[in-house]
Write the structure tokens for this entry.
Amino acid sequence: MPTSRSYGDACTIARALDVVGERWALLVVRELLFGPQRFSDLRRALAGASSNMLTDRLRELEANGVVARRRLPAPAASTVYELTPSGRELEPVLLALGNWGSRFPVPEPGHLSATSVLLYLRGSRFPDPRAVYRIELDDQIWTVRTVDNRLQVEPGPPPAPDAGLRTDPATLNALLSDPTGLKAAVAAGRASVTGDEKALLRLLQ
């Protein structure tokens, strides 16, 4: 059942934690930063959360105006969850928290979602207005392009990508640390490249 626990503290930090301080709540927000997701997408991204736990967090976040639920029109006809304007205001908080958390060791084994790696890519790479990229991770497709001199990640495929990469989040994370491993990843079947490989290497570097 959703929780109604409160710190009972009038401080604004405590009041914020009353809304997003439960386990998995902020990670749900993280997964919705790039756009709407189905429940099944969230379950796959948050592998350690049970279905009941995730259902509770979504209900709480919806009740507090952080997340909204929407039914897609036919032929999709599925329910998706997305951030409200209030929920979207949490993005700089999450990015600051991620920067702070980078000083701590990575857990073993360490799960990585597609959104986690794409957030890192967006924040760590210089924008390249010359190219548009198609990135496929965990059977989801993303467009990476430069908009207003900033690297932007959007759900869905670009109409005419200059380069594409199909891989898994862990392999992409490794390539962002060492782009010279691209050929080995392709040879091992962990990645496939389409289009201009040099353009893709510019993104990874």
In short: The mean pLDDT is 92. The first helix runs from residue 12 to 20. The longest strand covers residues 140-147.
